[in-house]
Amino acid sequence: xxxxxxxxxxxxxxxxxxxxxxxxxxxxxxxxxxxxxxxxxxxxxxxxxxxxxxxxxxxxxxxxxxxxxxxxxxxxxxxxxx
Length: 82
Fold this sequence. Notes:
The protein has 82 residues and is mostly helical. It has 2 domains: 1-46, no CATH class; 47-82. The chain has helices at 2-15, 26-46, 48-72.
């Protein structure tokens, strides 16, 4: 996502001919878009995206279980004395 944001900023600066970016070659300005595509391809191929989604789902599931236990008046695993 950072590559995409950087690419949009550089593209806008090149289009508006603002600052030193106006003198840069187009391939330098468009390079962050290529890096964003490469990052997304790697993330999908390596399973990084799926792994992060599963981690978020696990955290939400655990939070939901804790809220349910507290609503029922049961001791949550965080509040148990050993």
